[in-house]
């Protein structure tokens, strides 16, 4: 799987203001900014992202996904 393919899957299932991916085709690092993260705890945010992947984690299409998740407000504060 390519970064573009993975990004397309995530952004199709989750409204994203920003989604950046780096990886080697199996191990991925993502930075995701979504209004859907507003007011949610880290584990809830991760579940939202994993839900977009469906069974791709179980079938090993995506072996590992590390992520930083931000609401738009948090992202704006990071950039300031």
Automatic annotation (TrEMBL):
Leader peptide range in chain numbering: none
Pfam families assigned: BolA
Superkingdom as given in the UniProt entry: Bacteria
PANTHER family in UniProt: BOLA TRANSCRIPTION REGULATOR (PTHR46229), BOLA-LIKE PROTEIN 1 (PTHR46229:SF2)
Similarity comment text for this entry: Belongs to the BolA/IbaG family.
Protein name in the entry: BolA family transcriptional regulator
Organism, scientific name: Curvibacter symbiont subsp. Hydra magnipapillata
